[in-house]
Amino acid sequence: MLLTLILIGLYLSHSSKSSSSFPSSLMASRSLSHPEPNQVLFEESSCVRKVILNRPHKLNSLTYEMISQILRNLEVYEKDPMVKLLILKGQGKAFCAGGDVVGMVLSINEGHWSFGASFYKKQLTLDYLLATSTKPLVSLINGIVMGGGAGLSMNSMFRVVTENTVFAMPEGQIGFFPDVGASYFLSRLPGYFGEYLGLTGARLDGKEMLACGLATHFVLSKDLLLLENALSEVASSDASTISRVISGFSSKISLKKESAYRRLETINKCFSRRTVEEILSMLENEAANGDNKWIIQAISSMKSASPTSLKIFLKLIREGRTKELKDCLIQDYTIACHMFQRTFNPDFIEVSRLDSLCLF
Predict the structure, then answer these.
(1) CA nearest 227: which of 211, 248, 207?
(2) Where is the signal peptide (predicted)?
(3) Around Cβ 99, how many Cβ atoms within 10 Å?
(4) Which is the catalytic residue, given 100, 127, 179, 195?
(5) What pLDDT score does 353 carry?
(6) By the number of CB atoms within 10 A of the CB, which of 65, 149, 198, 345 ranks highest?
(7) Cα 281 to Cα 274: distance, rounded to the nearest angstrom
(8) What is the set of domains in the chain, with CATH numbers?
(9) What share of the chain is helix, strand, coil (3-state, %, to 5)?
């Protein structure tokens, strides 16, 4: 719970500087004005507990209620010696497309940025507790996983993907930055592939996720229910036992010829540069040497993103290589609070207000 206490301290520190108070009724009015029942489902099976994100019509984007419910149940599971394994999955075509930012942006525009800070603090706390749970966590990632969905799953012990999985961290496109610990889990990918993903918002499929290390296993979607049923019978927290069960359903992969991961040498050459400007210059030089569709897409994405967001993320991921997860999350929180207050610029609020995207 150390991170929780630190985040609370940071929140109180920032709140004292806010130009407007944080009314206790605001969070309830934002989150309960259109209440949705059963946003998260919890199932028990012998020694296994399942957490099922249940907003398929919203791509399982995270609300304050969902985060609160998962936190409460996770605390119970941690204390229960009968619980040996946790399974996290999403209903429908998405695992989780991120955090539902609509209410947050509305409250910030009304002068209550501290609602966003409270929401975000709770989300990062959940990410940290899932990552450090004493119970092994299997994330079944079938479908879209972006932003906050990556925060829930990318630091879990087992990350199972399928042919339907689509991963991306495109926060720069809405004036934010790849957060929820991205400076930790992306910085640990081979070479400078993490810089490429975070700065361009490029999408990966399940096979690419396995190849670069974002996933631990690749299972065909037709076998996912069989795997889930097999995991439901597990009565041990032994990592090797759980891995053997998953491996029994795993399939071999082969990357597409056009996969960016096959261009890791060029990615390292370009994205190892010191500044965003130097990275763009190197990419443009490479594009001039041939018709490289992925490079052209990378340049286009970076030029359409918030320059401030790109610079923030580049600094964070470079520092993240030597930091612990909790330190990366705390730094994410601090920067996000400044963005909510428009300390840097209004990019996040202005773009999100127009797009109403679900990412972090």
Answers:
(1) 248
(2) 1-18
(3) 28
(4) 179
(5) 45
(6) 149
(7) 11
(8) 39-355 (3.90.226.10)
(9) 55, 10, 35
